[in-house]
Amino acid sequence: MRNRAINLALALLVAAIDWTAISSRAQAQQPAASTQTAASTPDLSGLWSRLRDGAVAHGYEDYVLDFGKSDSPMTPWAAAKYRITGAMYHGTDPKTVMSDPVFQCFPPGVPRIYLFNFPVQIVQIPGQVLMLFEYDHFVRRIYTDGRAHDADQGPLWMGDSIGKWEGDTLVVDTVNFNDKTLIDRVGRPHSDALHVVERIRRIDAKFMEVAFTVNDSKAYTKPWGTKLIFESKPDWKIMEQICEDNASFIDFNKKATATPKK
Q1: Most CB within 10 Å of its CB: which of 10, 65, 137, 160?
Q2: Are strands 120-125 and 128-133 parallel, antiparallel or unpaired?
Q3: Residue 200 CB: number of other CB atoms within 10 A?
């Protein structure tokens, strides 16, 4: 009986040694992580709201519907498309606005999501920066672990985002968009070649700047961009805002207030 116990103990010891060796070899074969540690990266975390009132006083445009004069002349392809998408907002029939994918509860894309008057919370974890938008509870993942863009994904509504730190600035590179979203709320289009670069940095304890560049050779004759300013809102929290519920609520109200047929 004693010999059997000794043999069992020896077998378990050998198995443990073998597993340790296998585990060590597997770890040695893994590529070295390039993720910057939390201690070595600037802190962008917190809840932020785009500054509108007072933005001009800080040297920034007060963007509400579009990005104004900062855009570039359109190519013939984009101009032809804009005659359709722009008509949604410039036409006489307000029902045409509902043709905007956003009003059908599709994702708004980048950079348009910055035009919504809803706050965003930034959360930093190892290898990722998360942007938690109040608008429709969108979660945007910006990978900072050194990976390349994911070539296996199909075209995306919000694109594929990777980031890196340059000093105090998070540089976000986003590609792999579909062509179904619009740049802004006046109907400016883009193609599936859209490439957006954002440079996000704290100005001070209270303000954060997002400077972005739009590059889309199919839609615009040259790259263009602008800067937005966000104000820290430490006492706020992300509220519940769900596009599908809002759309249903609007339809319900229309039905409830409709004049009954005689």
Answers
A1: 160
A2: antiparallel
A3: 24
Region 199-217: what's the mean pLDDT? Answer: 96
Q: Is the Cα dihedral 122, 115, 187, 98 positive or negative? A: positive
Does the pLDDT of residue 6 top 90, yes or no? no
* Mean pLDDT, the chain, whole residue set: 81
- Residue 76 to residue 85: CA distance in whole angstroms: 14
Q: Which of 133, 112, 137, 116 is nearest to 244 (CA)?
A: 137
3-class state of residue 157 by DSSP: coil
Q: Which of 218, 15, 245, 210 is nearest to 110 (CA)?
A: 210
Residue type, 120: V
Alpha carbon distance 54, 61 (integer Å): 9
Give the three-class secondary structure for 224: strand
Instruction: Map residue 107 onto helix, strand or coil.
Output: coil
pTM of the full predicted structure?
0.77
Cα distances (angstroms) measured from residue 50 to each of 5, 47, 120, 246: 70, 10, 9, 22
DSSP string, 186-217: T-----TT-EEEEEEEESSSSEEEEEEEEE-T
The average pLDDT across 201-217 equals 96
Q: For each of the domains in the chain, give its residue range(s) and CATH number, in order of start.
A: 38-254 (2.40.128.20)
Tokens of 25: 């070899």
Is residue 207 within 8 A of residue 55, CB to CB? The reply is no
Q: According to the model, what pLDDT value does residue 122 have? A: 98
* Angle, alpha carbons 93-191-119 (nearest 5°): 70
Residues in the chain: 262
Tokens 């006083």 — which residue? 57
Instruction: Convert the pLDDT of each residue in 218-240 to its tens digit.
Output: 999 999 999 999 999 999 999 99
